[in-house]
Please model this.
Amino acid sequence: MDSYSLLYSSSYRTGLLSGFQRLRSQKKMCDIILQAGGVSFLCHRALLASSSDYFWALFGETTVERLASTISLPALTPEGLEAILDFLYSGWLSISPSTLPAILQAARYLQVETALSICEQFMTDHLNAENCCCYANLADRYFLSNAFETANQTIAKEMKGLIQKSKADLLGLNIESLMAVLDADEIPGIKEVELVTLTLEWLDENGPLSLLKSNLLLSHLRFGLVPASDLLTLCNAHRAMSTPLIRSQLTRAMEYHRLGSAQPITQSRQSTLRASPNCVLLVGGGASADWPEQEVLAFDPRSKKFSSPSCVIPQQMRNSCVCSVGGFLFVIGGEIKQGDEDEKKSVTMATSNQVWRYDPRFSCWEQMEFMLERRAKFTCCVVEDAIYAIGGQHLQPNSNTQMSLASVEFYDMVTGAWRRAATMPRPLHGHASAVLDNNIYVSGGLPGTQGNIHGSNHGESTDENRVVSRDFMFWDLNGRVWEKRASMSICRFSHRLATAHGYIYALLGMYEPFCDIERYDPQSDHWTRLKPLLTGSSNYGMVSLASGNLLVFGGRKWSDGQEVTVKSVLEYETKKDCWREICKLPRPLTGIECTLLPLPD
Model:
C-alpha cells in the first residue's frame, strides 16, 4: 500500500466564505429570500443550513419550508438579521451597544451559538456602571450564564452609585438578577436598610408577585444588619413584609439584637456584613510605643491600600490585646493613660481589666464585662468562640512594682462573664500565643517580676526571673495542666506566633537575635530554623492571612545606633520561606495590634 500525506489549507475556508459573500453581493445563485421588518435578504440555502441549527431544521426533508422561495421571520429586526447573515457569510460580527439587543435576539432565534458566544464576550468585556443593569437583563433573557454572573457582580460593586444616579435601571432589573445581587457577600458603601427600601420599591414597580416569589426575594435580605429601631418600622412598611415567613425573619433579627454578649457566637448569614472578611485592622499603634493613637487603620490585602474607618478606640491604650470573634472587634486590658496629657511628666499608666467590643455593623463601641484581673503585656487567643487571656503583668496599686501573672481566664460569651482556666506553671509577660487544632501554645516571655531583662541563648541563667525564656508550652483545653514541648532555639520576648499549614511560626522579638524565624512541627515536636529577616524588628503588628502568608506592619528597628519607628509592610510567604515588602504604612507606627475583621466601606 502506497504511503500518502494529508495536508490542510488554512486559507481555503476563508476563500470559501469570501466566494459565498461575493455571490451574495452580486445576487447570483441565491435560492432563498429571508424577510424581516419588510426588508428582504437574498441568501444561499446550503450555507444557511450548514451554519444554523434553525435553518437545518427548517430546510429538512419533511418541512413545508424546504421548497419555499421566501421565508418570513417576523420575530427579528432587519438590523439583527443582517448582522447575523454578515457573520455567517464572513465570520465577522459587527456589534455596538445599540445593536446588541437585536443581534442577540437574531442569534438566539436562529440558533447561531458562535455568534451568541461572541456577544457574551463583548458584554463581559464592556461591563460598567452605565450598562450593567441592561446587560444583566439581556443575559437573563438569552440565557448567557457567564455574562449574567459578571453583570450581577458589577451591579453589586456599583450599587452605591446606581442607587444615587440610576435607580430606574435598578427598578427595571429582572428578579433573578436582583436576587443574585441581594445574595452578594460584598456590596460596598451600602447599608442594609437601603437594600430593603430598594427591594420594596422594586416590588411596587414590578408587582404584584406571587407570594412564593415575593418571599423568596425578601429572604435574600439580611435583616440582622438593620438597626432595631428600623426593624419595627419595616414590619408595617409594605404588605409583602407581613407574610408569616418574613415576619419570622424580622422577629429573629430583633432577637439577635437582644442577645448582648452572645451576639458574636450566634452569627448567621442574616447578620453577616456584606464586606471582605480579610480586611486587616491595625489598632493602637503610634509613632512611639509609649504614646499610642486612638485612630484605627484598615488595610485591604487585595488592593494593598490603607483607609481610616469610622471607629476610634474609646481610650488611649498600650500593651493591650486585640482579637475578633463573629465579626466583632475586642480590645482587652492594657495600660491606660492617667493624668494631664499636655504635661507628660504628670501622666501615669494604670493597668486595666476593661474589655471593649466594637460592632462594625452599626459602628458602635460597647463596654463588656471586665476581666477578673488587670493585665498588660499579656497574650490572648480565640478557641471555640471563647477568648482566653493568658499571663501578663499589672502594676500593684500601692507600689511601683510590676507583677507578672501566671493566671489564665476566658470570656464565656453565653453568660457574658470571665471564668478561671488552667494556670500556667509560672508567671509570664511579653510572651506569645497561637492556636492549632483547638489547642493553645505559648512561647517565650519573661518570668517573674519586672527587672532588667537579659536574653540567654547559651544555657539557663541562675536568676530565671530575670532571663527571657525560650520555653514552649502546650495546653489541651480538655486537660487541667500545661505541658512543656520542645524549646525554641532562641529566647524570645515581645515576639509573635502564627499558625499556617499545620505549623507554628515564631517570628522576631525585642532582643538579640531579633531577625530569626523558626517553625514548629507539632507532629514531630521539633523546631526548624528558617531564613532570617535581613533587618530585625520589634513592637510590630502581625496577622496571618487565609492563604497562610503572614503580614508584618511597622515596628521598631536599629538604624545608625538608635531605634527608629518604620513604615514598612512586609509579607512572609510561609510555603516559600521568603520575605518581600509590599507597601508602606501611611506613617511610621509601632506597638500595633492586628486582627482580621470584615468592615463596611
Observations:
- The first strand starts at residue 32 and ends at 36.
